[in-house]
Amino acid sequence: MELRHLRYFVAVADRGSFVEASKRLYVSQSAISEQIADLENELGGPLFVRRSRPLALTEQGKIFLTEARKVLNAGAQATKAFKRSLAGEVGTLSIGFFAWGIGSYFTESIREFKLANPGVNLELHEMLSHEQMEALGNGTLDVAFSRPLRAPFDHIYHSEPLYTERMMVMMPKGHRLAGAPVAVEELASEPIVLRDGNGASYRSEDILKILAEAGIDPDVVSRAKTWPGVVSLVEAGIGVALAPSGIRRIVTAGLALEPLLPEHTDVGIAMTWSAQNKSPLLASFLSMVRKSCAKDTESL
Question: Which domains does the chain have, with CATH numbers?
Answer without folding.
Answer: 3-86 (1.10.10.10), 91-164+268-295 (3.40.190.10), 167-264 (3.40.190.10)
